[in-house]
Amino acid sequence: MDMMIPLGGGNEIGASAYLYMIGGKKILVDFGIRFNPKESHPDLEFLNALAPELDAIIITHAHIDHCGAFHIVSGKYPDTPIYTTFETAELLSVMVEDAIKVKYIGRDEESTTEYKLLDEAFLRIERKKFFSRINIDNIEITLYPAGHILGAASILIKWNGKTLFHTGDISLKDQITVKGAVLPEEKVDVLVMESTYYYTKIEKSPKETLPESINRIIKRGGKILIPVFALGRAQEIISIIKEEMKKGNIPPVNVYVDGLAREICNIYEHNIEKEFFNFYIQPAPRYEGLSFEESCEENLREADIIISTSGMLMENTPSYAYAKIIGKKAKNGIIFSGYLTEESFGFKLINNRNQFKQFKCEILKHHLSAHSKRGDLDKIKEQLNAEKTVLIHGYPGKHRKEHAANREVIYL
Fold first, then answer.
1. Cα-to-chain-centroid distance, residue 109
2. Which terminus of the chain has a smaller tally of CB atoms within 10 A, N or C?
3. Where does the record place the Metallo-beta-lactamase domain (predicted)?
4. Distances in whole angstroms, Cα of residue 181 to Cα of each of 80, 153, 370, 382
């Protein structure tokens, strides 16, 4: 009996991990983390009970909710090959190493073991180009461009006359830094599709555009913090600001890029042959002999705009340190641009403003997304015309008709 079981990332966003038991083989797609330290990654004991052995691990892309614990699961299955795209493999090293570093801040435990697991996991990665085939006995797997971010892949699986398409995080629309997804031309039997924005209406952005908000705050003498996800969102925001400066819609002011986004920009640059930094937009300087908070103060003397991770203002991150400084003055602004988990400081700040009276600055949210909205998700369903659709990676609420819950067995 063929089946799929979400170990995480079913009726939630976070800790994505999907076990496929098909054609007599066991294939794990993704193994990410949650932003909840008490239960950060999917249940390894449950996975081991279902699959004492794995035939393959596939990582769809390098956001940590999909890959943040891949080294841990690989350590439990040391003989299992890991498949991903060339770009994702390069990004994994930076993203997961940073996630480990953040995880152990303020903790007594040693991080050495996890770094060793990460080094060992990289030796098991087999890098693949889009549209190349992966054969596991009678199972044929093809990686398709998913849009979303650099290197992101959807997965087409064929076995015993059946066809399944696992979208991963997907965006049909082109972004500045990555083209939209490519779908199979054939009909599929089963569609397993993300549903980040399938059930919820997209939040309305302010009446003004992002460049207009930036321009208005700069004109009144304010400084701006734009918290960003290091991978994908940072590169899009930088590209928007760079282009709008060229058009004259944003004044030529100093912009510093800080946190992990600096390093990710370098990886993007040599993969898509696009430059992010110029005379006005620069990596934030480092200062010897200064604490990080003091470095932030120094950077804000030079720069009018700070683009920094984390996108959710998680504590112990650069953007959190900048926010505490920028928040002191009413003329300044913090502009969020994406998803905020309820556990994050960013979510609490934007939804419970009265609890944080020390933040006197303006707080805005402009919605930019690398996920397909409901209309495009319906287009995917229509084009692939699957006999069975399974929705994952979302919060269905009462809408449970097609949605898979964590640990639920879905027969294919």
1. 27
2. N
3. 14-229
4. 28, 9, 11, 15
Nearest to 213 by CA among 244, 239, 236: 244
Question: 141 is written with which tokens?
Answer: 């797997």
Q: What is the pTM of this model?
A: 0.94
What domains are defined for the chain? 3-199+371-411 (3.60.15.10), 210-365 (3.40.50.10890)
